[in-house]
Amino acid sequence: MNYIIIQKEKEIFKLNIKDIYYIQTHPSKAHTVQIFTKEASFDLFQNLSKLEKQYGETLTRCHRNCLVNLERVKSMELQSKTLFLGEEGRYAVQYSRRRYREIRQKWLKEGE
């Protein structure tokens, strides 16, 4: 499955998985995630674990509350444990120390 269908009020969006920078749990809405792309952000009533199972080949868990598209990662800051995504590091996402090796290994293989 290469798309996520998102309904926002009276509009429906068909969002390509490869266009997603990252997905994180919503800070104030229970059972909701925020999806960030170059153009916009969307709220989706969904579980992060289910999204990880469905789209695990494209999205990688970098923290307990976040999935990241490694194709969009431009750099990694080791000291602050931060991934920078998009043009000129527009988005910054924290990664956990525990997931560092997996993220680094997958990210470096993306460039091969």
TrEMBL record:
What are the GO MF terms of this UniProt record? DNA binding
Q: Where is the HTH LytTR-type domain?
A: 4-109
Q: What stretch or stretches form a coiled coil here? A: none
Q: Which domain of life is it from?
A: Bacteria
Under the heading Pfam families, the entry gives: LytTR
Which key words are in the record?
DNA-binding
**Is this entry keyworded Ribosomal protein?**
no
InterPro entries found in the cross-reference section: LytR-like (IPR046947), LytTR_DNA-bd_dom (IPR007492)
**Which ranges does the record mark as transmembrane?**
none
What is the name of the protein in this document? LytTR family DNA-binding domain-containing protein
According to its UniProt entry, this protein's organism is Streptococcus taonis
